[in-house]
């Protein structure tokens, strides 16, 4: 309990000291271990000093980075300063998030750390999504994959044929999520973007480790392109999207499609995506008590997603480490201000895309929390996010219509 009351710098200093003591005792067991102990001793002496030096500047660095990139929060009009239109909108967002966090805490899912925790959280999230909208037609199917059938759900907003299509990959840390957890927001999105949405239930870890998820995601996208006329979609107007881990898969699918010669993809929407798996950036160390996401929980989940031979810097695990992002489809990357580590990743990925001559926009939602795309029943930010994605896709599809 005392540790929770320490200032961030002192808390990490205490953790580093305990780390040093623990491994120093173990290391004296053998001559080889003694050599390890020396390495740990040197590291443990330097680590607290390094943390104390770096921590005060992290917040300022984040603000400076934001200023350099000229971020425009989604609640602002282009050309305005970094101040929200009024303090009332901030107060409303704070109150709404507080309500949601209270419901999550009451359900015991505020900071899921284990696979069971994450799965329980994603079974709860539909209660925050609002009343599901009516859609013209919804159909569940099974399509062939590399290792058996892949369940998909088609959302068709009208009787028109030849509509554009969005292939969507749900979030859930690669271990949770389903066709049902994202049903409500995808109904709303289909009705607003006037396209068919195909939700993909890829294989989950730890039962199916990497590369099962990206293999299924790519196979489903390729199937849509090859069977477009059969399901009433235009195979020349395909976009991909996903939230969290699904955002990672959407980004990975664009890389796979480029390397494997197709299918051609028109656009990508990455909603607070996981783009870098190492969690070694200073922002991950600086964050503490982050609702729904922490460095420790992310590492725990990744440890069951990746096999022993998995590489954290594999571009199909961490798209930020791709050597080049040239010729990828334009991107809308949705993130939120209070999620510093993943926000930094999103902004860096957008910068990389722009450097490689790919159009990219980062849309920042202040005062939101991880998962807000699924919480439109309680968060205005969730509603705005769905509307923004729908508007962006609709404009993109219209520009490329026959």
Give a structural overview:
The protein has an 8-stranded mixed β-sheet, sandwiched between helices. It starts with 7 loop residues before the first helix and ends with a helix. It has helices spanning 8-27, 31-69, 87-106, 115-124, 183-193, 212-226, 228-231, 245-259, 282-286, 295-305, 340-355, 380-399; strands at residues 137-145, 148-156, 163-169, 196-200, 233-243, 267-271, 331-336, 360-365. By secondary structure, it is of the alpha/beta class. The chain is globular, with a radius of gyration of 22 Å. It has 2 domains: 3-64; 115-399, Rossmann fold (3-Layer(aba) Sandwich), CATH 3.40.50.1820. Mean pLDDT is 82; it is low at 1-84. The protein has 12 helices and 8 strands. Helix 5 (183-193) crosses helix 12 and helix 6 (212-226) packs across helix 8.
Full CATH superfamily name of the largest domain: Alpha/Beta hydrolase fold, catalytic domain
* Spatial shape: globular
Question: Which CATH class of the largest domain is shown?
Answer: Alpha Beta
Strand order of the largest sheet: 1-2-4-3-5-6-7-8
State the helical fraction: 40-55%
DSSP helical segment count: 12
**How many strands, which pairing sense, and closed or not: the largest β-sheet?**
8 strands, mixed
Rounded to the nearest angstrom, the distance between the terminal CA atoms is 63 Å
Radius of gyration: 22 Å
Number of domains: 2
Structural class: alpha/beta
Mean pLDDT: 82
Q: What's the architecture of the largest domain in CATH terms?
A: 3-Layer(aba) Sandwich
This entry's quaternary arrangement is single chain
**Strand/helix succession:** HHHHEEEHEHHEHEHHEHEH
Low-pLDDT ranges: 1-84
How big a fraction of the residues is strand?
5-15%
Question: How many β strands by DSSP?
Answer: 8
CATH topology of the largest domain: Rossmann fold
């Amino acid at each position: 309990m005392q540790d929770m009351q320490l200032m961030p710098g002192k808390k990490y200093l205490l953790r580093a000291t305990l780390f040093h003591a623990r491994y120093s005792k173990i290391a004296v067991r053998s001559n080889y271990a003694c050599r390890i102990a020396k390495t740990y001793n040197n590291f443990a002496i330097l680590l607290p000093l390094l943390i104390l030096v770096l921590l005060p500047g992290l917040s300022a660095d984040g603000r400076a980075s934001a200023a350099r990139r000229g971020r425009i929060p989604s609640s602002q009009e282009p050309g305005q300063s970094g101040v929200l239109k009024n303090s009332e909108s901030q107060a409303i967002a704070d109150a709404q998030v507080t309500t949601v966090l209270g419901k999550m805490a009451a359900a015991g899912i505020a900071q899921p750390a284990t696979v069971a925790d994450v799965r329980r959280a994603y079974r709860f999230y539909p209660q925050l999504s609002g009343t599901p909208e009516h859609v013209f037609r919804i159909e569940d199917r099974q399509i062939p994959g590399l290792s058996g059938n892949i369940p998909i759900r088609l959302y068709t907003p009208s009787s028109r044929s030849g509509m554009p299509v969005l292939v969507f990959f749900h979030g859930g840390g690669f271990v949770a999520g389903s066709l049902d957890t994202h049903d409500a927001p995808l109904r709303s999105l289909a009705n607003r973007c006037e396209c068919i949405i195909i939700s993909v239930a890829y294989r989950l870890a730890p039962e199916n480790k990497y590369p099962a998820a990206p293999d299924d995601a790519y196979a489903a996208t390729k199937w849509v392109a090859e069977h477009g006329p059969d399901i009433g979609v235009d195979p020349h107007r395909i976009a991909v999207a996903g939230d969290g881990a699904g955002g990672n898969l959407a980004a990975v699918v664009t890389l796979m499609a480029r390397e494997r010669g197709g299918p051609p993809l028109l656009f990508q929407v990455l909603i607070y995506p996981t783009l870098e798996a190492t969690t070694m950036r200073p922002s991950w160390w600086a964050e503490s008590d982050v609702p729904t996401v922490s460095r420790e929980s992310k590492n725990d989940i990744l440890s069951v997603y990746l096999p022993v031979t998995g590489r954290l810097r594999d571009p199909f695990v961490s798209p930020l480490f791709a050597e080049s992002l040239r010729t990828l489809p334009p991107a809308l990357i949705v993130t939120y201000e209070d999620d510093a580590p993943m926000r930094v990743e999103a902004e860096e990925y957008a910068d990389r895309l722009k450097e490689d001559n790919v159009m990219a926009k980062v849309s920042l939602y202040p005062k939101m929390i991880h998962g807000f795309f699924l919480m439109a029943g309680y968060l205005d930010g969730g509603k705005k996010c769905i509307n923004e994605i729908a508007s962006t896709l609709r404009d993109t599809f219209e520009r490329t219509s026959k």
